[in-house]
Amino acid sequence: MSAGPMRFSSRGRRVLGLILLVALAPFLLILGASLWLSWSMKPVQTYYLGTYTACSLLGGEPGAMTTVRYAEKTAPGRKPEALLPENVVKGSDSEQPLALSPSASLRARTADHDRSHAAHGTRDDRSQEGGQ
Fold first, then answer.
1. Can you tell me whether residue 89 is helix, strand or coil?
2. In 3-state terms, what secondary structure has residue 128?
3. What are the beta bridge partners of residue 82?
4. What is the rounded (10 degree) CA torsion for 47, 50, 56, 60?
5. Which of 13, 65, 83, 126 supports an S-S bond with 71, CB 3.0-4.6 Å?
6. Which helix (DSSP H) or strand (DSSP E) does residue 72 occupy?
7. Reduced to 3 states, what is the DSSP secondary structure of residue 88?
8. Can you name the residues that pair with 89 across neighbouring β-strands?
9. For residue 62, what pLDDT is reported?
């Protein structure tokens, strides 16, 4: 007798297919939901997703505690400000998941420039068009 490939009847294939579908369906749903969330969420929402999930899951537990790390805009010599979704882009690594957006960075540099001139009592003549 020769040992050939294992063959399943058409009914056996349907049962095997159903078992695979039932076993893999949760993983496929989780994978699809994860991809959709990563594609559709803003960086600030992604940053707080773990906290949202923990609060939702532990909401019914009276003594449950959740750690919340707030993201703020700050720099040396500046008072921290709330970080708004339009102020950030996705960071370059997992240690710094958020980065200041180019427009927010430009606004901060402009504000620093204006503050510097105000502190020294000088004026920026570049901001006046046509001189006098």
1. strand
2. coil
3. 72
4. -130
5. 83
6. strand 72-73
7. strand
8. 99
9. 79
